[in-house]
Structure formats: structure tokens, C-alpha cells
Amino acid sequence: MEIDIAVVGAGFGGLGAAIQLQRAGFTDLLVFDRGDDVGGTWRDNTYPGCACDVPSHLYSFSFAPHPHWSHTYSGQPEIQDYLRDCADRFGVRPKLRLRHELRRADWDARRGRWRLDTSGGEYTARVLICAAGPLSEPALPGIPGLDTFAGTVFHSARWRHDHDLTGRRVAVIGTGASAIQFVPRIQPAVERLTLFQRTPAWIMPRRSRRVTRLEQAAYRHLPGAQRGVRAAIYLVRDAMAVGFLHPTVNRVAARVSLRMLRRQVAEPRLRATLTPRYAMGCKRVLISNDYWPALTRQNVDVVSAGISRIAADGLVTDDGTHHPADTIILGTGFHVTDPPVASRIHGRGGRSLADAWAAGMQAYRGTTVAGFPNLFFLLGPNTGLGHTSVVLMIEAQLRLVVDALRHLRATGATAIEPTAEAQRHWTEWVDRRMRGTVWQAGCASWYLDGNGRNTTVWPGYVTGYRRRLRRFRPADHHTVGGRDRNLERADAV
Ligand code: NAP
Questions:
Q1: Domain 2-137+336-492 part of CATH 3.50.50.60
Q2: Which of 107, 247, 450, 486 is buried most, with the most CB atoms less than 10 Å from its CB?
Q3: Which residues, judged by CB distance below 6 Å to any ligand atom, belong to the binding site of ligand 1?
Q4: How confident is the model over 100-134, as pLDDT tens digits?
Q5: Considering the entire predicted model, what is its pTM?
Q6: Cβ atoms of 174 and 256 closer than 8 Å
């Protein structure tokens, strides 16, 4: 089947793309998703306590305010409902092709189209928008013996709701944003909870509260009030980037965190185990009021020794201790710097994106990639954020995508891709901006790839990113057809 635009992923990025493209008049599009519902990461992560640590007014589309948020920071079910509602409200449902996993995409230079092989059939599209999401592929730890474990193992993003944890001896591996949310929820039910911590997290208080009926009514009847609140949150949150760009500023926040730790954990040994020894912000700063208190309960052990192997009936640490368990929950994160979707996308000359990114992910303005015509990546390289809402980044990228497609239409060109030079300049600039930031302060984190380069986080303010993406820049691109035939020349070399 021939379509104009193929969007891969029906999470915030893919739904946002479908909505904004349709509003801009690009209606011949389909949204493919391997799942059976919209929502992306908010569909997949259903673990107990799953919630967002960005305020809801900002963690939502600017063009689809939601007056009914029950809390200032929402839980997963409410965010998932919001995305379903957006799909309905903006007429995206007919465009959805659920249970259609992208198996392979090939750029057909002769026809100037992408050939798409999905689990639901074959399609061709002029434009491919990849909104597969940076946090969609669970990373499983390569600990020896994991496959010999006789009990139940699952990843936090694939929660086994059919496996009752009541009275179980549960081992949790990982202490990232996911684990710190589900640990306090499961702790009261389990018989024993053994938490394997490799690196302690910096944690700040979670300042969520119920949104009153009065506030909801105000947002319903005076949309300007909600826009005002959103704008205020935007400014305050974006200003928080300063602590990441100039790490000394974060020392004040670190004191708040350590004070909370002292208040919540009285026992000196446990407190020492939980005390981070690296610059705050180098790894993602977490927010929780109940994680540290849960670890002080009788039925919890925090183990900081490394896991050497997994046996049929438990985990063995480097000091030789055997920790019995009948369930292992992996809160071990995602493939962020090596997204599996990259090995499925093949651009000019049949080269895969994984190959193009073998030395590290890079994309011009985090969105387009040299050698991959008419491919737009949402939340691509260096567009992640530690301080505010990635929905803002998605919306900035969508404005750029619409502008690029309008340019194609206006010039009669059939394809565009960034020049290698423009991409290199952009990447060098990002790398320069990264120097001196807290992410380069020496800790190991998922922000860094195998070469130690930060290919995930935007090293600045959202405002700066939006400004840089305001307009499509023809001079930084090769085009096919229309007035400029550069790409054919590029193809020849
Ligand atoms: P994560 O932040 O990558 O955390 C993974 C955890 O697993 C880390 O503690 C890591 O230890 C540990 N780990 C990984 N491999 C291990 C191994 N082989 N042995 C022992 N420990 C191992 O993953 P996540 O918690 O799922 O969060 C991922 C991202 O999703 C977050 O950073 C955030 O961007 C997003 N998220 C957001 C929210 C929210 O908004 N509240 C909630 C959940 C997730 P090290 O630290 O030592 O590497």
C-alpha cells in the first residue's frame, strides 16, 4: 500500500506527529505500532507506582491541555488515558495500524520512497517519521546464570501482573527511576525484598498534591489560567538546567537530598550505603518521598556487593553470599544509546542506521540523519532531558518536520537529507556544549555511550533547542528534484 507519511510509534511522539501533520494538511499518513494500544512507554510501563516526575501541565501537549489532572504529577494510568483521549479527540484512530511492528525500512532511491516491511503487511511511504521512543527496549543485564533461575523473572517495563508477589522472596536489580517507584509499593506485600544496588541515587522530595475541584473548574472554564500555570512551570523547570550546565549550583540541591536521607534513614550503615558519592545530576536525579523509608523496613535488605551470578534459587554476590529469591524483578533500564530500531532502517546505498551510528548516535538537530533521506527521528540523539518535559522537545521537532515538508511541497523536491557537513558541525557544537556539564563529571550513566560520549541529553535549555529548530534550513540539506539536485550528486559519490 502506498502512503505519503509513515509514522512509527504511537506514543507521545507518534501521536503528536499524526495530530500536527493532519492539522498542517498532511493527511495521507499512517501510524504503525507493535503494541495493541496507543501510549508507547506509558502503555508498556504498568508497574505499581509508575508515575511521571514532570508536572502534568507541562508533561502534556501544549495544543491539548487537560483540565482534569487529578494530581500535579500524574500516574501512568492517567497519562495513558490522556493519550488515548488525544487519539480520539484529534481523529488519529483511523490512522492507527496497531500490532504492526516495523521489521525493516529500506530507502528506494529510484522511486524516492521508503519501502516498509511491517508485521501487518508491506507499505511504501515518501516520508518516514521514527517515533519509536528512546525508552522502549528493555535492557536485560548480562549476569551469568540469569537463564538458569528457576523462579519468575521479569523487567519493570513488562510487569507480570499475573504473578502475585504476596509472601514472595523478591530480588530487585537496579535503583533507577523505575525501581524507586515500585519498591515502596511491593515492599509491604512481599515476605523478603532484597534490593541489589550498584550505584545509589540522588533523590529529591516529590512535591505532588491533589488538584482541587476548584482548580479543575478554573482550568475548564478559563483555559487561559491553565496556559498561565503551564507557562510558569515551563520557566521554572527550564531554569533548572542551570544546575546541570554549571554543576556547582547543584550543591545546594544535594544538601536538600542529604538532609532528607538523614531524616528518613536513621541507621548509619544503611544511610552510608544509600549515600551517593558522585556529583548530583550526573545520573538522573530521582524524586520520591517513600523510597528511602521503605528500605528501612524489617523485610528489606539493601545489597551493594556486585552480583557475580544467578543460581536456580537465588543470587550470589561477589563476597560469596547466596541471597535466596523466588522472583527477580529487573529494574535495569533500556537500550538508549543503541536503539534496536536503528538496525531495521536502511538508508542510501542500503546502509543501516545502526552502521551509520556504530561510532555513536548523531543527527542534525537531533532529527535528521545524513544518508537517510526523508527520515525524521523524534527524540533522536541529544534531545533527552533531565530537568523538564520531553514533550516540549517533541513539539519543537514537529514544527521543524512540518516546515521541512512544506519546503518540499513548495519547491517540488521529492527528498531531503542533511549534509554530512551540517550534521558534523551540529554534533561538534553539541560535544563542545557538553564539556563542563555535570553529565561529564565522571559517573557511569545511560546518558553515555560505549565511547563515553553523551549522545542522549540536550546540553542546554529547552528554550535554546526550540530557537535552533524554529525553521527548516535549506542550505544545510541536500535535496532531490525541484530546484536543487544535490542529492543525486551526493548519491553518485
Ligand atoms: P535506569 O535509570 O537505567 O536504571 C537502571 C538501574 O539498573 C540502575 O540502578 C543500574 O545501576 C542498574 N543496573 C543495570 N544493569 C545492572 C547490572 N548488570 N547489575 C546491577 N545493576 C544494574 O532505568 P529505569 O529506572 O527504568 O529508568 C530509565 C529512565 O526512564 C529514567 O532515567 C527516566 O528517564 C525514565 N523514567 C522516568 C520515570 C519518571 O518520570 N518518574 C519513571 C521511570 C523511568 P547503575 O546506576 O549502577 O548503572
A1: yes
A2: 107
A3: 51-53, 135, 141, 143, 156, 173-179, 181, 196, 198-199, 283-284, 307, 331-334, 444, 446
A4: 999 999 999 999 999 999 999 999 999 999 999 99
A5: 0.96
A6: no
